[in-house]
Here is the input.
Amino acid sequence: MAQHNDRILRHAGIDRLFHWLMAAIMTVLLVTSLLPVIGVHFAWYTIHWVAGLLLTAVILLHIVRALFWQRPATMLTLNGDDLAGRRAGKYTLPQKLMHLAWTVAVLVAIVTGLLLLRKAGVPFLARDPYARPLAIWGFLTLLHDLAALLSVFLILVHVYFGILPEKRAYLRAMVRGWIARGDLKAEHDLERVDRGD
Amino acid sequence: MLKDMMPHFDLYQPDTLEAALDLAARLGEDGWLVGGGQDSFDWLKNRTRRTSAVIDLSGIAALRGVRVRDAGIEIGALTTLTEIEDDAVIRSRYSLLASAAGRVASPQIRNAGTLGGNLCQDTRCWYYRGGVDCYRAGGNMCYADTPEGQNREHAIFNASRCVAVTPSDTANALVALDAQMVIAGRSGERVVPAAAFFVGPDIDIRRMTVIEPGEILTAVRIPATWSGAQFHFEKVADRTTWDFALVSVAAAFRMEGEVIRDARIVCGAVACVPWRVTAVERALVGATRNAATADKVAQLATGGARALNFNQFKLPLMENLIRRAIRGA
Ligand SMILES: Cc1cc2nc3c(=O)[nH]c(=O)nc-3n(C[C@H](O)[C@H](O)[C@H](O)COP(=O)(O)OP(=O)(O)OC[C@H]3O[C@@H](n4cnc5c(N)ncnc54)[C@H](O)[C@@H]3O)c2cc1C
Ligand code: HEM
Ligand code: SF4
Here is the structure.
């Protein structure tokens, strides 16, 4: 077990809060939209769009925080070190790719979901299905549903790796905030980590 | 394509419930149940819906007639609307249902139409009936709730993407009478309260009742609770006969002298399901059944209503019908 002073802060409290909020809202979005498809009928639609708006707000806050309080490059860039298979900075290549896939799935779901509100109807927006041609609505629905399918797939992969014993330190970091330097040694270059790379 | 001619389908005419259930289970979604055919044949002749097989339930004698049971009554689902309108027990104890059945469509349709068919009939939204690919038909659009959509007949409550309303007159009376629906399937029988039998678009946008493929509504039970209570049924439609409600009200009052001990107020054609106006029901308990009470509580009826472009008139109409129901017209 690593010594206490070997611990480094991996995720600040606010980021952990964002992560678990997003996870909870994503679960609500998936449960509300997919259970009816497999025959479990309940009043899903209002819960779904309210959760959709909440997710939009949390993602926006996450983006603002990442842009101005964190170094987006840490997560978003794939640099030569990553591609050459050298040891990673704060995030490993699979972690960066997982984040990228989530970004695509969630942004597509949000953009299409917000646009679909106009057709499907919400109390605060004049409903106008004729605002766009039928084919565009069909296309938006298709993209929204594909984003949902991708999310189901990503959740399975994300949770599977999240609970693997050898990846437990990352899970603990997302719960408690810290990670032991010892746990990072195998895959990360501690110098790069310290540089915030 | 020839409209108004019956298309081809295999016709099954079972004479026992067991045979009908076997057929319904075997044919599943392909076995279209028919009582009097007054809703079904529209769909089939217009080719807006197709089926390869029809199971005609009208030959099952056990599903017809009115029986006294546990101090209440049980009505077979294949009993015609005319038989219900004319039945002596229903007229004396549950005249609300007789009045509602008597206001359905026309005498010819009531002679053929069955209680089960009237309760299970599909909505009359004309976009949907016209065969457009809307949400209810499995598409991803509602044509009625649009800036230009013709939605004079549509919902003011509980719309969720779909704004269609229930067309059934008997449904509202049965919800007011706390009826129970008896549903048979091959694996047995289940009994569902009338209020839970009807399904709104928030729960399932594709169907109107909880009946699953393979199941048959066999009977409706009405408990003794409301037997001999004071009733009021009123329906406003564009024509006084042969027309669906714009708004209707089915009301029941259990009295203690002049005072209302319990009340049921159920409106038709304002939501996709018979709409219980519980705020008014609660306000009526302990009140006197007169014009002053009616004026005081009727406006509670439309709290939470959301009118569409062409059906704002339903709000005052609903309040006025409830006012008339409370004061006894
Ligand atoms: C011009 C016109 C005006 C009308 N006006 C009114 C009106 O004012 N008020 C009103 O309430 N109705 C009205 N109707 C509707 C008519 O009353 C109903 O269509 C009729 O009562 C349905 O009964 P049916 O037995 O003929 O139904 P069917 O057509 O035989 O069946 C209707 C539906 O119920 C299903 N079904 C039938 N029996 C059972 C069962 N036992 N178990 C499970 N499912 C079953 C069928 O599969 C079908 O989907 C009108 C119809 C017409 C054509
Ligand atoms: C990743 C998160 C999301 C997932 C997995 C998801 C999934 C789905 C699915 C599968 C459907 C189709 C359900 C059906 O028709 O039975 C749907 C519908 C819908 N979703 Fe989402 N969704 C997500 C996010 C959002 C967001 C952010 C919004 C916007 C607020 C939104 C708004 C809608 C709307 C309005 C519909 C109805 C569309 C219509 O009826 O045409 N969703 N969603
Ligand atoms: S109101 Fe319902 S049935 Fe009518 S067009 Fe809209 S979705 Fe279809």
